[in-house]
Amino acid sequence: MTKTQETVAMPPQLTVRETTPDQAPPMPDAEKARRYLDSEGRYAEGSIHASAGHYQKLVLHVRTGEFYFHCSDWSVRRNPNKDDHFPPSEGVWSPFHWLRVADILHWTIDSHHNVAERPFLTLEEGNEFARQVAPLADALLRNLQPVPGTNAYDWSAEAASAGMDIQAACTRHQHPPKGRRPELVNMAEAVSVFPELVRDSWATLDDMQLDEEAEHLNRCGLHHNPAIAEGLGIDPDAHRASLVGTRAWLYEHRRKAAAGRPTLSAAVWLATHPALITADTTDAELEAVPEKASAAADAQGIVLLDNTKYVAHDRRTQLRKEVLDELATYGEARAAAEAEVKSHRAAVYARLYRAFAWEARPEITDTDLGKLAHMSRQAVSKLREPLDKDEETVDA
Hints:
The protein is of the alpha/beta class. It is built from 13 helices and 10 strands. The protein has helices spanning 30-38, 47-50, 123-142, 157-170, 187-193, 207-224, 226-232, 246-258, 266-271, 283-299, 308-356, 366-373, 377-395, and strands spanning 15-16, 56-61, 66-71, 104-108, 145-146, 153-154, 184-186, 242-244, 263-265, 303-305. A 4-stranded mixed beta sheet has the order 1-3-2-4. The protein has a two-stranded antiparallel ribbon with strand order 5-6. A two-stranded parallel ribbon has the order 7-8. A hairpin with a 4-residue loop joins strand 2 (56-61) and strand 3. Helix 3 packs antiparallel against helix 4 (157-170) and helix 12 packs across helix 13.
């Protein structure tokens, strides 16, 4: 059951954590790195220093609110086929669309011994940098949108803009914050200027369908509905222009439509009411299922999600498939059993014929043979008859 009436916890308050010397490796030696590069690789000691790369980052733990300066261990060679390093790759700040928020977000600081504008930061400089950027991280956290009925967060235009400002601050040029980007439009803003965007079906979509709808709106909603940009006075073709917060808005829309009632997918509800649909349900009976299911669910105070008509048809199809699967199973078992019976019958007959041919057999009667073969005496005698006739013919 999707309990969309539950309240989702807001993001935690930001805290800046000081990184200590034991939590960061020593800085790479710029002079050793340059000697290695200048000598075209003949100065082996500088190899690891030259390959340190952009190892300094700002990290935000969304669930705890911790924000800090982080240095990966540049002296340890990483296995490119393993993704077990920290911070995890799914949290890297490289936005393409705004739908899901990773539990750990991180921004690479554009520092390097060859970057004159921003050489590698010392531990003290890194901690200070984290403190300077903290207001932006705080703005990001405060503006994340809880997704009702889940433990997930969605972006808002304000949160995403703050993330972009952190990214800009981490570049070698250290760009100042721009604040809210007009090309990022909150879903609620879009609906306010273009109510026709809302579809009735959204109120009864299940989680997977809502997520698909949120993805589509996030990527294409602004471009497919020019009235939104016109109403807000923005350029829909601007770089990264997008609807933001679509998932949180859709889940909240469904929650409000349910008016406090629990929601349940039609597939799950029908599975708990097996009398409504069986493999033998006719087409006419199937047409009446949506109305019956809706009335019964309403009586229980439940809102059914998904298109009940299609779900009912799929359920009957599945039930009929189960019958056919059972038919195949029993058919295979029957064929195997009949083959085994045929083999055993042939073995029994072969041994009976051998017994019939024995001399001095009066002590083994047809009744005795029938008991051993689990046959009647008459059946054994009937098998013997052609042999007796052959013997009479020979005697004659």
